[in-house]
Amino acid sequence: MPSVSIRARLIFLSVLLLAILVLSSALLIRELARDSRSLAEEATLVSVVKNANSASKHFGDLKYWVMDAAVTQLARSQQAAEAAKAGLDSDLKAISAVDPAFVAAIKREVDAMTDLARQAGVAYSSDDSAAGNALLEQAKSHVLTIDSEIDKVVDRVEQQAVARRDASTRQAKLAVKLAIVGGLGALALALGFTALTVRSITVPLKQLERSMASITRGELDVAMPPTGVDEIGAMTRTLGMLRDSLIERGRLERERQRAEAEIRVARDAAEAALHDLKAAQANLIQAEKMASLGQLTAGVAHEIKNPLNFVNNFASLSIGLLDELKAVAASAFAALDHRQRGQVYEVTEMLTGNLERIAEHGKRADNIVKSMLAHSRSGGGARQSVDLNALVDESLNLAYHGARAQDQNFNITLERDYGKDIAPVELVPQDMTRVLLNLFANGFYAANKRRRATNSGAFRPVLTVITRDLGNAVEVRVRDNGIGIPDDIKDKLFQPFFTTKPPGEGTGLGLSISYEIVTKQHGGTIKVASEVGAFTEFSVSLPRRFPGRGAADSLAASTAS
Amino acid sequence: MTVSILIVDDEPDVAVLFSQQFRREAREGAYVLHFALSAAEALERLATDIEPQLIVILSDINMPGMDGLALLREIKTRRPDLPVMMLTAYGDEERRRRAAEYGAAEFVTKPVDFDFLKERLRRLHAPLT
Hints:
Strand order of the largest sheet of chain A: 2-4-5-7-6
CATH architecture of chain B: 3-Layer(aba) Sandwich
Strand content of chain A: 5-15%
CATH architecture of the largest domain in chain A: Up-down Bundle
Oligomer: heterodimer
Radius of gyration of chain B: 14 Å
Number of domains of chain A: 3
Structural class of chain A: alpha+beta
Largest sheet of chain B: 5 strands, parallel
Distance between the termini of chain A: 70 Å
Radius of gyration of chain A: 76 Å
CATH class of chain B: Alpha Beta
Number of strands of chain B: 5
Shape of chain A: rod-shaped
Strand order of the largest sheet of chain B: 2-1-3-4-5
Structural class of chain B: alpha/beta
Largest interface: A-B, 15 and 13 residues
Helix content of chain A: over 70%
Number of domains of chain B: 1
Order of helices and strands of chain B: EHHEHEHEHEH
């Protein structure tokens, strides 16, 4: 019944209950009224029976005193007859309410009898006993009629009273039944309507309560009860609005959290970008420093190369010229005495030796210059798709046998830890080989230096070479268990001409050139980790695909984007 | 038969070096060496008749003014059949490629290996003798 308000329902129920009460009361009142009426009738009949009996007695007195008066003519008998007549009339008057026809007939008979008796009395007084007797006989016949009529009336009225009493009893029983049935019916009806009404209120209230409890527990997806036009419907709608606002609030909360998460992600990204930027900046500065040093180196090499060529050319030329001089002046020298010849010979030998030394050191300088010029090479070599492990292993063997050829006592344990299934990498093989040779040679040098420093001979030099596929890049790590690199010179490692080796053993250009090749030519990184007296590890990381620009350019580009 | 070689280099000592290196050949009358200190001077010399017959020009690449490669192109427009050898301290691929493209007969890196150079010259000279 949700289409009618609860107030209307309660009013309706009250009206209904009132109506049931009124109707059932009316019914009972009607039945009671009927009962009381029939009881009154019964009482009337009972009094009529009493009157009839009284009438019968008064008539007996009357007929006696009338007969007696007629015979005796006594005033006393006359008076008793008058009194009996008055009693009879009174009784008849009461009966006339029930049976007026009977009363009228009786009155006529009584009048006739009294008249005949008076006439008989007149006859007796006149001593006409025969006529008196005859008249009395007539009067007696009336007396019989009246007695019989009165008896009949008494019987009839008694029967009526009994019938009336029985009817009243039946009616009363019926009324009791009716009252019980009607009362029960009314009660059932009232209970039924009350139950219906209560149910129409409590069932949706229960649903609403459950929904409210669910919402309180935070189960916002709970089904809302159907909304009618009644008060519960209004509450349901209000609850629905509450739920919607909670859902909306939850949604806003989730959105806020998501936004916060996004902000956090963005902030992290920005911080990471800042970190990357700082690293890139540091790399850029390092790259710029190296590039300018490289340019300076190349410039210096260019300037030195020409005069150095003259030195070398003239030195070797002079050796030939000196031989020529010795040949041309041989006869003149022969003419000299022993001491002078010895002096000439000594001087020419010294000159030859000096020129040879000039040529030798010139060649050394030329090699340095050539290495320096490698800085200015702008990636002349062709990029090829290369099997990294093969390239590394080839270079390692080359470096190892090269070192063995230079030094008979050299030995080192090589440990290879090559990553499996490394896809081919694009790089310039000659240049990367050069980098690897440099790193291997440095590792050999450091490990051997430590071996020489430890007198016991228990030290075993080891060089470990590791290759790894990093997805978008590949990594080569070269680790030696040598003397290590002090922290204060780590920054200078990649500068041109920086070397810790004695003069003549290293140019100080190996790592500088390696740096150029890895960063500038291949867009990769080269890093060093070391602990003095323990190990040194160089890590070279090369991107799989490099657009072919200089490191500085690509860094600039990444900074700008 | 004596033939001429024109050597173009902005370094004056190159003349001294080549003169000394080719002293024996000059004495034997195989070559006469001519020197120019710039590309312009070389083209000037080329305009006049060089005696005896000029069989080859040796030119440096890095020179002030017109450089060796420009000189090479110029010579090739004037005397397409005259061999030109490039001598340079910088044996990089780019210069080597351009020299070959412009028609250089040889690309020799400094310091000059004179035995190698003399061998090359003999080959140039041989068909003429």
